[in-house]
Every structure is written in structure tokens, then in C-alpha cells.
Amino acid sequence: MCMPKIYTKPSSSLYDENRDECHQPPKLLNLNYGGKKVKDSEIVDFNLRWMNDQMSVETAREFLGKVIKRGNCPENGSGSIETSPHNNLHNW
Fold this sequence. Notes:
Elements: H1 40-55, H2 60-64, H3 80-91
Helix pairs in contact: 1-3
């Protein structure tokens, strides 16, 4: 539940020099980040429950979102994996 090391290597295209150093490994990713100090055990518990909810959907469309085709305007149709945890990590 830590940020993958590829995001911390300056030679990686995924590296961001502006990323908060307090969130570098071995710090746990916090999907419920609110700027407050939280116990690691609480972070792990929340993350596992949250990911279970996000992964336990009925259809591929609920998981991945609406189909986007070239030439069409994108609609608001994000899937569960895009809205969270993906966006949560940007906030963190």
C-alpha cells in the first residue's frame, strides 16, 4: 500500500519533483486522506474496505466507465476505479 518505487525515481517519466516528500515510501497510501495524522492500522483498514467496494461491482462498465470513441465528446461516465482510488491518490 505504498507508492510504487517507479514514481520516486528521478529518471522515471512518472516522477514528479513537486510530489510531497512526506508521502514517499515507506509511507502508506491513504485513500481517505484529509490532511490529518491517522494511525497506519486505520489507513490499512480503510484502504482494504474501500478497494473491496470499488472492485466489487456488477459490470465492466461500472468498473471501467463509459466507452469513449474518437470523434465523440467524452461524457461524465467514469468507472469506480477512475473516480476512486485513482482521484484519491491525486488528492493525497
